[in-house]
Model the fold of this input.
Amino acid sequence: MATPIRPIPVVTGADAVRFIEAAERAERNAHTVELAMSQEEFEQIMASAKLY
Done:
C-alpha cells in the first residue's frame, strides 16, 4: 500500500515575515572564507584523500 505524501506546510503571518527578514539578513551578510594554504597544497591533500 502506498504511503500518502504529506503536504508541505505553508508559513504565514508573523512567522513568514520573520523568516523572510532572517533570510534577507543572512543574504546581505554573506561572506567568503579564505584558505590558509596554497592551491598546490590543497590539490595534494585532495589527491591523497580517500573519497568513496
Q: What stands out?
A: The mean pLDDT is 86. The two ends are 35 Å apart (CA to CA). Helices lie at 13-28, 39-48.
